[in-house]
Predict the structure.
Amino acid sequence: MKGVLRLEDYVIIIDTREKTTLMQEYCDTIGIPWKKKKLNYGDYGLECNGEIMKFTVEKKYGHDELATNFLPKNIERFKREFERSAGNMAVVTIGNREDIAGRNYSHGLAPKFYLAKLKQFEKSYGTEFYFVTEHTANFIVSLLFEGNKANQ
C-alpha cells in the first residue's frame, strides 16, 4: 500500500454475519464502495487495493446488546474476539455513556460492574468503546480510516 492512495482505492468490508443494511445504505449514499466478506473479528473493516487492513469496528445496537457480552455465558466468546483482534478493534455502541449511570437499559448489570468491565477490556485488550447517538455509519467509517492510518 505504498504511494499515493485515493479514496477509490478503498472498499468498506461488511462482515457476512452482519444483518443490518445501515452501512450499506450509508456507503451507497455517499458513493463509497462496499462488499460483504467474512472478517476474523469485528463487523466492519477496510480493504485497500485488495488487502484487508487490520483495524476493524464491532457495532452494538445499544447497551443491552453490549452488556450481554459481559454475562458469564457470553464473556469467553467476547474475549476471544478481542484476542483475535490483537488490539486492532474498537467497539461502537448506539447510545450514550450517561445511560449507564442512569441505568437506562434492561440487561440487569449494575452500573459499576458494567463500567468496570468496559475499563477492564480497554486496558486488557487495547481497545476503546465509543458511544454514539447519531451519524453512526459516518462515525464508523471515520474510525476505520483513522484506526488503519494509525496502524500503517
